[in-house]
């Protein structure tokens, strides 16, 4: 089984990511570490427990991580995910935060990886604050990972949060910089433009959501708001493909789960702009090796969408 830690900021696509991982018999989730991001940390914690409750998997350890970026001003994505991060449809019987682990997320991450050297895959779908703190506390942490799968950044300077910045990187540019600089394990990146280009047809989404199960019902409910937003004319201008369903975070998990999911990729040195008036938080690709850095990231370009569909279908069964 693949040993996975998910570092997330549960929003709608993070919820789908957890469900995809839970549905896969070859995945063992060692823990879920929460970070600020789509919504304030307190919501992220509640939302994560809500998803686990729907899946009857409250046995998975959930940890409290960083509540704010290293230096940047806090920002959230309430317009898309809802103020509460899950479409603003509260569950009156949501599990309480007493179910959280006592240990803090970053320490737990370091411990879990130390106990399973070379075996743990880290799937990161939030701002990278927890990961940046982890490497500061334990510089050997990244070397002990089997792989890192990030949803974040952009490859053609098209943004969704600033002119050319993607949300997870813009929400904590310094953290993204530290991670891209220090994580020398195989690092896969699902950028914003990549997820837009590899979106699924809305017709798939309709059939998928129509499944008559509690999980499908939950997904239908929490994604109403983000779906409306995603299908709005303004949003379609923002995405580079225009009109598909792209559940961004799920791509990172799908790649981590199935080694044959990525069908086209590019290996490039990457870093993050920290200063530009318009470009702060933008991922920069060093095709001409000006940065003289040895470690290249694996930028996802194309994937097997049939495999993704199957994973999504299984997740709601
Ligand atoms: C990323 O930002 C968030 O809104 C999504 O959950 C995803 O992680 C896309 O830019």
UniProtKB/TrEMBL annotation:
InterPro entries: Inosine/uridine_hydrolase_dom (IPR001910), IUN_hydrolase (IPR052775), Ribo_hydro-like (IPR036452). Belongs to the IUNH family. GO terms for molecular function: hydrolase activity, hydrolyzing N-glycosyl compounds. It comes from Amphilophus citrinellus. Pfam families: IU_nuc_hydro. Residues 4-309 form the Inosine/uridine-preferring nucleoside hydrolase domain. This is Inosine/uridine-preferring nucleoside hydrolase domain-containing protein. Gene3D superfamilies: Ribonucleoside hydrolase-like (3.90.245.10).
């Amino acid at each position: 089984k693949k040993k996975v830690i998910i570092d997330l900021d549960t929003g709608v696509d993070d919820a789908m990511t957890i469900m995809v991982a839970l549905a896969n018999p070859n995945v063992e989730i060692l823990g879920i570490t929460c970070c600020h991001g789509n919504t304030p940390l307190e919501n992220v914690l509640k939302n994560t427990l809500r998803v686990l409750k729907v899946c009857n998997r409250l046995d998975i350890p959930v940890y409290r991580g960083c509540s704010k970026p290293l230096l940047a001003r806090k920002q959230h994505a309430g317009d898309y995910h809802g103020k509460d991060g899950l479409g603003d449809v509260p569950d009156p019987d949501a599990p309480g935060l007493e179910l959280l682990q006592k240990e803090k997320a970053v320490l737990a991450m370091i411990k879990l990886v130390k106990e399973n050297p070379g075996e743990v895959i880290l799937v990161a779908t939030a701002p990278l604050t927890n990961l940046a703190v982890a490497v500061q506390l334990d510089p050997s942490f990244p070397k002990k990972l089997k792989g890192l799968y990030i949803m974040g950044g952009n490859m053609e300077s098209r943004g969704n949060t600033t002119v050319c910045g993607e949300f997870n990187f813009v929400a904590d540019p310094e953290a993204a910089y530290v991670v891209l600089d220090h994580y020398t394990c195989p690092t896969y990146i699902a950028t914003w433009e990549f997820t837009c280009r590899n979106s699924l047809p809305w017709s798939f989404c309709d059939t998928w959501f129509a499944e008559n199960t509690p999980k499908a019902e939950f997904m239908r409910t929490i994604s109403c708001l983000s779906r409306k937003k995603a299908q709005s004319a303004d949003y379609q201008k923002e995405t580079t493909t225009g009109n598909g369903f792209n559940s961004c975070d799920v791509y990172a998990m799908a790649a981590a789960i199935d080694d044959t999911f990525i069908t086209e990729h590019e290996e490039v040195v990457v870093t993050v702009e920290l200063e530009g008036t318009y470009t702060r938080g933008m991922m920069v690709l060093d095709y001409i090796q000006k940065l003289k850095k040895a470690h290249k990231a694996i930028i996802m370009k194309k994937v097997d969408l049939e495999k993704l569909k199957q994973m999504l279908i299984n997740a709601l069964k």
